[in-house]
Design a protein that fits this description.
Length: 170
Amino acid sequence: MRTSMKAVFAAGLLMILGPVAANASIIQVNFVFDEPGWSAIASFDDSTGAAWIDPAMTYYETYTLTLTDGISTWDETELDDIEYRGLVVDLLGRVALFESGLDTDTGRGFASLVNLSPGEIVSSELFSTGGDVLLASTYVGSIIDTPEPTSLALLGLGLVGMGLRRRKVA
């Protein structure tokens, strides 16, 4: 009986800590645009950040990106000619895309413009172009709140412990 309780405890611990350890440093960002039809979601690995221009801002390479301007949709695999690939995060947690790219299949591309002041992103604008069509939208990105891995691990351990205690008392 004792061995099976240990196995249950180990299995529970692996279920809790396995996914947490695997994705502990991937942060998702949601972008809200002022132009209807525009949307974007991106993610970055926060273990790869480096100070960028202003020491109070951090530049991260983009891990994933899905962007649409209402006409074309891009992700990181569809952009053949990428000049930059990243996100800039200020101390207030605001995020700007710092990317430009061209989809050679459709001829449509996009480019970003980020206005900075010391320590913060003042405004961000994204341009999309295809032939003579040019669309632009200002936007603000914010980090999507995700539970901290440590908190999840402690909650899981507490639940496993309560289960073991209940079985011992019964």
